[in-house]
Fold this sequence. Notes:
This protein is mostly helical. It has one domain: Orthogonal Bundle (Arc Repressor Mutant, subunit A), CATH 1.10.10. The chain is built from five helices and no strands.
Amino acid sequence: MWFNHLNPNVRHEKWSLEEDALLFRLVLRDGTKWAQISKAMDGVRTEHMVKNRFNSLIKKYSARYQRYSLKKLAEIIQKDL
């Protein structure tokens, strides 16, 4: 949404390892409720940023771990971070 670009609290830099780890902890705890996860990250990333980051990391790892479910894959990635 356009207002996310105007919000000074939204970070547009690269994702840190700490943010990635937090993202996977929140997904394992709450599921894929992107708005809720975005709020839990103190609103520094929009729900679209959170969703896109999660999906890109899942896609990166899914080739290596094809037989695992989404939840198990999230646990594996969290351990790698």
